Amino acid sequence: GSAMVARALWALLAALRAGWCLLPQSGYLHPDEFFQAPEVMAGDILNLQVYYPWEFLSSSPCRTVVFPLMTSGVTYWVIKSLQQLDICSSCINSYTLLVSPRLLFTIFSFILDYSVYQLAPFWGADPWKALVLLAGSYVTLVFYTRTFTNTLEGLLFALLMVLVSSRKSSGSSAEPTSSSLIGVITTAGFFNRPTFLAFALMPLLYWASLIVDSQKSIKTLINHFLKLILCACFTAIVFVTADTFYFTSVSLDNLYSTNKSSLIDVIAQLHEKMVVTPFNFLSYNLNPHNLALHGSHPRVTHFTVNGVMLFGILHILAIGAGFKMLKKYVHQLMLVRWCYHGPPGLLVHSEGSPTLLLFYFVPLAFLSLFSHQEPRFLIPLILPLVLFSASPNRAVKWKLLLVLFNLLGALVFGCLHQGGLIPCLFHLEQLIHSPASSSHPRHYTLLFAHTYMPPRSLLNIKKTDMHVEVIDMAGSGDETLCQTVEQRASNFTCSNCHIFIIIPGTVRATVTKCGVSFRNETLIFPHLSMEDPPQIPVLSSGNWRSQLGLYILELNR
């Protein structure tokens, strides 16, 4: 009976995941969800006006282009083809630009569910209990349906765990046979985010120990490792070649056209211009000064804040279990020393909880070595955590707390957090492309202040169109903001010019002091800015909608 209830609950949560993606989710988690794939691909494939982040500039290539092309690139190519074939006349609009890459990621997110179902029996967890914990987590509902490289990192980590956890029907550990795939996934993960090595370390050590344990012949052992290394090298060559072609704008036609170059000359030219994005990423991120530009955090932030923010009570219970395991292991070690026996087997022979805790805490410890610590860096750890939390001897006593925690997380991050910005861009896109605007060409100036970076691709403006100007003021001070607004107001000459200021309700008073008037205002609700949070006394007054809203103010002539 409880298994049937769990299945029905999982199906309901899976439907919610897909439905909420299509709705779409209005919350805006972090600029990277747009600027590490969809924004770049919208510029390259759909020829839209976009903002290219520094990591994708040929002067500083730090991100592979393979995954953006395979995800957002493919979805944008599909909607472009549908429009060109007249299957739908306006396939490319702000809704499809936002939802199509997210929908692909939402479909991919079910790799996590598949992995949990496959892994649960191996690690002694209840499959349906684990699936409900996974599908009911706001991390799955919100983060795994967004276009983050961390999302792909989590999916690759899940596949790696499936590959290293193989078992015979008799129940004993099977001889691992997936060396080639393990090599491909580890390298692909490294090119997606070099931090993948922190997640891959424990699965790879576990896999290596299983091989050493099950092999009698040195020849077979070497064969496994050679397969892994060869496939890893081949995958790396594919990524390096694709990135080199993309970032150096090298085309095969160009290479062959110069004096009918031989193949050796072509290879030499490619080698000279070779782009290895993970090494550029590492050289940038290993510089403390560069990391400080993105924000420095105490080394314990992942353990004490981010883990709790993402996983709530499950993270706290895992820490408690980790300390107990450590205490038990130290005690065992002391006994072993006294009795002169061999070291206690922790990794291979104590399958289940202790090993899963290592799969959870070892990556956490490695990521804590870096001073820049954001919650999303930990989202791949949801897999070992739900498997650990769903073991039969660990009854989930905190059901109500878990439900409330995930409801709150889904509300804050899925709806409220910077939640007015995407609906605002939808509204502006409709305004810019309205029939009135098309028949009488107008010039639009969109000034964004105290919001996250607006993804320009959602405005759906071709690179050749010069009638829309986007100014991102970020968190500029009052004086700078007023100077820019006043300067724009004084240059208000053409009859068809429209200037819009987009600003959260919490800092709206700033613009009012600038000595300009507005002829029109639109309030988009809800919008929660953590950088300019609403004040509690104001929230309790009748003005709470304004405090939790984003204003689109049209400047008066």
TrEMBL record:
Membrane topology recorded in Swiss-Prot or TrEMBL: Multi-pass membrane protein
Residues annotated as signal peptide: 1-21
Record keywords: Endoplasmic reticulum, Glycosyltransferase, GPI-anchor biosynthesis, Membrane, Signal, Transferase, Transmembrane, Transmembrane helix
EC number(s) on file: 2.4.1.-
Main location per the UniProt record: endoplasmic reticulum
Annotated transmembrane regions: 190-212, 224-247, 303-326, 346-371, 377-393, 400-421
UniProt-recorded Gene Ontology molecular function terms: alpha-1,2-mannosyltransferase activity
Keyword field contains Translocase: no
Pathway: Glycolipid biosynthesis; glycosylphosphatidylinositol-anchor biosynthesis
Enzyme class: transferase
Gene Ontology BP terms: GPI anchor biosynthetic process
GO cellular component terms attached to this protein's record: endoplasmic reticulum membrane
Subcellular location: Endoplasmic reticulum membrane
InterPro entries, per the entry: GPI_mannosylTrfase
Family: Belongs to the glycosyltransferase 22 family. PIGZ subfamily.
The protein's name: Mannosyltransferase
Native source organism of the sequence: Platysteira castanea
Name of the coding gene: Pigz
